[in-house]
Specification:
Helix content is 0%, strand content 46%. It contains no helices and 16 strands. Strand 12 and strand 13 form a beta hairpin.
């Protein structure tokens, strides 16, 4: 039986959130889990590069970071990652001409590690905002144990506050039966009956 575990995440930012752990020779995937940790300041932790063991055609992960500025005359914005200026994927939209409020968005694709900063300036002042993005590692302590003739117990102990639930995907070795079941974020085990 092939089993994979997907974590669902409570977040306030856009992104792709998925991790899958499989026994046997099934593919292992790591998406990015993105959620705010501290208001204003953000850091990306861990190796969040997409892992593809079996499907090289799968989409590269992508997420968007946003910051908002208010003030005139028109502002300029610079996005950076680890002090390196990024220009591709950046967009600025005027939300309110009366207050000169802008939303600055950066779309990030591929290697997601680093400290991202949004720097906004005009003729009279400037300001800097950092976004704190974390990428929780997938549970590394997943255990499988026989629980009867046609049942497997899947258990894990890793806990991340942003995880609100798990989806366990399974498929029998002969491929005749597959399915999925859900578990709450507070749970640490699920029983699969085939």
């Amino acid at each position: 039986m092939v089993v994979s575990l997907t974590r669902t995440t409570a977040i306030a930012m856009e992104g792709i959130y998925h991790c899958a752990l499989c026994n046997g020779n099934a593919s292992r995937k790591v998406y990015v889990g993105i959620y705010p940790v501290d208001e204003g300041l953000i850091q990306i932790y861990g190796n969040v590069a997409f892992v593809l063991d079996s499907n090289p055609n799968e989409a590269t992960p992508q997420f968007r970071l946003c910051c908002t500025s208010t003030g005139g005359p028109a502002t300029t914005v610079t996005w950076s990652r680890d002090s390196e200026t990024l220009s591709e994927g950046a967009e600025t939209v005027l939300n309110d001409a009366t207050t000169a409020q802008y939303t600055h968005t950066l779309t990030v694709t591929g290697n997601l590690e680093g400290l991202y900063a949004c720097s906004v300036a005009n003729e009279t002042s400037n300001d800097l905002a950092r976004l704190n993005v974390t990428a929780p590692s997938p549970p590394s302590d997943v255990k499988f144990s026989q629980n009867g003739l046609k049942s497997v117990l899947v258990s894990w102990t890793s806990r991340v506050p942003a995880v609100t639930g798990y989806v366990i995907h399974y498929q029998e070795q002969n491929g005749e039966q597959n399915g999925s079941l859900t578990a709450e974020g507070s749970e640490s085990a699920a029983n699969i009956t085939g």
